[in-house]
Design brief:
Oligomer: single chain
Radius of gyration: 24 Å
Number of helices: 15
Largest sheet: 4 strands, mixed
Order of helices and strands: EEEEEEEHHHHHHHHHHHHHHEEEH
Strand content: 5-15%
Number of strands: 10
Helix content: 40-55%
Structural class: alpha+beta
Amino acid sequence: MIMRFSLRCVGCETAFTARVGVSPTDLTRFYLLCPTCGLPIHGRSTGQELEQLRVEFDDAEKIAGDGTDQPVVTIDPSVPARSDADWNSGFGSFTMMTFHFLLGDEVSEYFDDVGTAETAALEGWKSVRRIGRYYLDGSWVFFDKIGRETFPDWEPKTTDHERAARVFRAVGAVTEQVVGSRANRTAKFMERYLLKHRAALRTPAYVELLQADLAEGRIGTLQRDVFAQVDTFLRSYDAWSLGRLPRFLTEASKASLEDLTLFRDDFTQLRDLYQQGFELVCKTTRYMVAAQNTIKRGDPNDFGTATPAGVGEKQRPKTLKAFDKLPNASRLAYAAIVPGWEGMTELLNNRTRNAIGHATAHHDLRTGTIVSDVDPSGTQYLDFVGHVFDVFDALATAMQVIGRVRVSASPNPYV
């Protein structure tokens, strides 16, 4: 839905018409630029029903008028657009033409993914969140109550491993729908990881490691932290949902985006999601490399004598305890050297992590880029949103790793 507003910039006092694309939302933060002086004008829309939709602006006042002979600014928080787009500007004026130009034959698959993901994130997750919380709290009566209400084939279970397997399957069903059909890298990783994990379970030292971690609370703490972060991501789904778009674009289409801007202003929120998700995924690499070490050398604590590229000889860990103390980049490097796992680690861009984590990092609204002292050239906002989407994909996959570890650490596991 397009809403028109006659506005006056409080800076240069120019009157102009703002055409803003809006849709039902709890809260969407956006901005536009004054067509005369370039002042960033922040806005926000709220309202789940069309008749309740409300749009407010900072640094601009609403005025009477039909907009005749006024400059026109067109933006939509959910579509990349040109900063000078008018209603009939074609590509970059936020119409479906923009999506068709960018996606071509992929447009139907993209919107199929969008619809499925929105239903999963906004509706499906509500019940699964409750199931997960009751699981983490050990409230088995309510765990089964919500389970029966959500899944027709739900049957109460009494063992730790059965309950754990059930809740992680439920979470995985939702997160797979959110990530959508372009999760090729994590799907390949999970396939290869499970082969190693199942084979490693034949080695007593590997099982003893998992059981020790469960007994000391390491696995329980990690699964609780990862679940909470997945929940935080999905509660903020609207802010990073467009990160799916880069996965569907050809290199030529990506080049077309250089002239477009995503007029969203959720940088602080997305930065926190990125950093926290990144950290948690790195923590789960403990169990990835433990399985690899067991298969290669018969001991989860044996890292051998070789080191990955970029990891110094003095950094080579002799135990998993030492591995846990390595910088994130080094831990990811150990996971990345395993054939088939590199796709998972590539979702975690350490350059982006360092750039956005710098104290000077901010969203430059005039250029539509994320800049900092360590990245003065900047990262396009849509690219950054794509990196956040990647981290969610990796986090959802890491949660399934923890699920397998949790099940296998039980006294009576199955895999």
